[in-house]
Amino acid sequence: MTLITRYDELTWPEVAALPRDLPLVLPLGAGYDDEAIAQAVGVDHFCILPALPYGWEGSIVGVGEAMLRRVVAGIFSGPQEEHFSRLYVVHDGAENLDMPDVTHLKLQRHTPYYPKIFATPQRVILIPCGHTEQHGYHLPMNTDTVIIGTIAERVVAAIPDEAEMLPTLPYGVSMYRSSFAGTFNMGGRTFEDFLLAVLDVLVERGADRFYLMSGHGGNSSFLHNVVKYAGDRHHPIFAATAFLHTAGHLGAPALERYRKSKIGGMGHACELETAYLLHLRPELCHMDRVVDEIDFISTPNYYMDWIEGGALIISAPWEDDTLTGSYGAGSVATAENGARWLEIAVQEKVEHVREIHEQAWLRIARRMSR
Q: Mean pLDDT for the chain?
């Protein structure tokens, strides 16, 4: 019987404790047979990483071999730095992904892959971007991916004639990667170039409206760049992003109304993210391990909270402020608030989608009138 460790459901101390010769397997898409992977690797225990949901030939959006190789190399850069010695990518496509220190396994999918083609000008294509990174002692590595993926799915369910979505991307950018075990960092340039290549393909198919949704603070500035580059490259399109979720005209007042922590209690592995996970995936929350950390180095123009304040944007080592990886007060989180904030976050994103449509209609009308 094959034993499978699911990397994204671990906490960072659990990742730190993994044997460095335990095989880490990156699937490109879903549908592979676990026993076939184990047989190909030659083990009865391996660790499965979150699947890359698109990018290869035959997936929803293919980006070409050279770009795909950059993405796979970027994903594996973190485990290589942490001295994991057995790295595998599982793939059934045409691309050659052989690269130094990464073994490419060509396996047939147990479940056939039927990609849905996205290219509907009348809909905004949501591109939710999560991440796989540490979230303190008590939350799993997939916290950001679970939250933003759920928000995007519920937006599409609420307004299916106005929005559709790509699968949630579980890899992003963490510039502090080396500070805490287990965190991935695709690299800012690779992350930007990958998403630009995705947009290129979708625009070529006829899509013209995009909402790059960030579930991870480290992605936000790079998504801003993607939107700007994409607009420069494809002038007629309408691409947008926003800083995280539950942070705008509806989210911010709701946080203020219901939060139990003071300023500093919501940042990362905090009251907000813990509340979401207690509602969505309570079995992955280890509330007996929560450590609250809110003693951040704050000055008049820089302080840390979910909606960051001050005029300064600062890049500083995380370990200056946190020893556990948490920024905030996870101990006061409740599933009730998680459900409440999720409903509001979905409503806020629905309004964002409708505003993207409004911008498109108004700008198209002005162009046609000239």
A: 94
